[in-house]
Structures
1.
Amino acid sequence: MTGPRLVLREKRPQGSRVELAPGVVLGGRAFVVMAGPCAVESAAQIQEAAKAVAEAGCAVLRGGAFKPRTSPYAFQGLGAAGARLLGDAARRHGLLAISEVLDAADLPALEGIAVLQVGARNMHNSALLKTLSQLRRPVLLKRGLSATVEEWLLAAEYLLAGGNEQVILCERGIRTFEPATRNTLDLSAVAIAKQRTHLPVVVDPSHASGLRELIVPLSLAAAAVGADGLLVDVHPHPAEALCDGDQALPPEGLRDLMQRLPGVLAAVDRELWRAPLRRKAV
Ligand code: PEP
Ligand code: MN
């Protein structure tokens, strides 16, 4: 009797909607694209990224401030200063922000961030999940690098069991024997998670593949299989990125993606969330 309970679809057959802000809902009819650099690197970089993300019509700006890096010698992120720069850039461009919480001690610095991301490396951190379960803020829960769907759902169960119902699942690829891609995007898991749970499910095609060339096709596949949105790496100058530049779209790549998504979404009776066009000042 230790399996998932509260996340199960039968608890809420109509599905859960996670409202990030008025009019920005995950799990509804609209497909929501969250985009931005893997890491916040400087004020200029995140402002430029925010401008590109807003101009492409997306709702949410991503940017890692507290970074879980495999090597202690890799860029570790700007921490609290990065979170502040991300929040400022998002507000200035009318966007919401998403950023990773590595540790409960990061939470005060992430106060102005709309969505708290739990990274793949922390999916099994039940102490962190219990802390986040006490909040009433949206949490995006990435699937662990080698986690089964059942383990992923049980991690989400921790959040709901503590009373936080604003949970979004994120498939970001799993470790397999295949070295051609950084990870292997498990689209079956997206379909299963949508069937078994009432939670919104998004796909991260950047961390799943590690390859810029695969982002558009994998994003279209995610839309076709029933995902509710994307979390995608976009960098104003990918070749200069301090982190994961090979898997980031440049601004024109994001525009291209936003143009291609509506065709696939129409086939599954969904539509793309796009910012209402701002009136040009005359
Ligand atoms: C990220 O999205 O910045 C990240 C570190 O991804 P993951 O936790 O999926 O490796
Ligand atoms: Mn990354």
2.
Amino acid sequence: MNHPDIHFEQQGDVAIVRLSRPAKRNAISDELILAIRDAFESMPEGVRAIVLDGEGDHFCAGLDLSELKERDAGAGLIHSRMWHAALETVQFGPAPVIAALHGAVVGGGLELAASCHIRVADETAFYALPEGSRGIFVGGGGAVRIPRLIGEARMADMMFTGRVYDAKDGERIGLSQYVVPKGEAFAKAMELAQRVAKNAPLTNYALMHALPRISEQPADQGFLTEALMAAIAQSAPEAKERVREFLEGRGPKVKKA
Ligand code: 1HE
């Protein structure tokens, strides 16, 4: 991974991808969206979970608006499709992605966060879709992914009125699954990534690739896909070993939260 705006690091089976354009609040230029795609496409073998972070006080200020002014309709279409392709590599890439959010998570930054599997926010995080007030529309898959997190009405309100959610309300409505004190999002994301990395690979595969498809299917098809995925997952030697461990009193018990 070799791009000036992306820092890549590997700690055991967890990879860290950090947007590193803090002077521009990690705004995503064409070059940066392609670098994100390349980073997720060329993950080293053995990476079992990925943490996505942003350098500086803000996770990501969204699309680099300085590149928007030159674009005509045709170029806009291609540009949006380029974002779709890049964020597909995040959502359906080699391993689950845990986003560590802080400061601005806005516009395309929220679209990027929505393509991750788990979002951990610190108390400084805030969410907005300023596209509405800038006379544009989401173009990085947000119209598909964000309503799945918070519902269409809340997303429309964010765009109609410029509503900004803080970290606490963001968790309440489903923009993040966790809120932690200021400065602790990365550490919490790493802790979760290490836990996710220990899952049986087929479990993580099912959660990344089957679950989102099942939830889009009509119920009768979803039940069948679920049954097929369950049958495949439980037939893996690793699943059998984990169940045996529990039955022999060696596996972990579920503890009260
Ligand atoms: C930028 C961008 C950007 C900052 N494109 N240059 N996104 C937005 O509409 C959000 C625009 N940004 C902001 O509202 C604020 O910058 C923040 C709340 C994120 C941060 O505020 P602050 O006070 O910390 O920083 P700043 O002084 O506003 O910005 C620092 C520099 O970053 C400054 O450049 P400089 O050369 O004057 O130092 C800003 O111009 C620059 N900067 N954000 C370009 N977004 C797939 S379609 C997705 C569509 C969208 O994402 S639209 C939403 C775009």
